[in-house]
Amino acid sequence: MWIEAKRRSGRNENLFVFQFTSLELDYEPYIQHLTDIVPVLGNERAEDRLIQLIQLIHRLQARCDDTYTNGEVVASSFLFADEMAEMTTHMSYLLLYLDEKSEEMEGETRDE
What we know:
This protein has helices at about 25-35, 45-60, 80-110; strands at about 1-5, 15-20, 75-80. With about 110 residues, it is an alpha+beta fold. Helix 2 packs across helix 3 (about 80-110).
């Protein structure tokens, strides 16, 4: 799977096209992974963010088709620029969370 920015015809913005080489080996695991990380990002303060992330995942699923297929790409989906910015924000929070957890684990290891 890879993501490619494609200029929208007649508009001054990009679509971010998720290109999958296999439904079983690429698309389904990617969607499952996104679904699996929702609880990791969860807490009471982030409930609105989680709902937004779930909506983005549903949009990716609903938009999956063969519109941008070619050669090795068998299915594709897309997010608009504002949606991709939102997805990037969620992934940034996930990286911060993982960094915090990693530091906690290192601290626990040192304490033992």
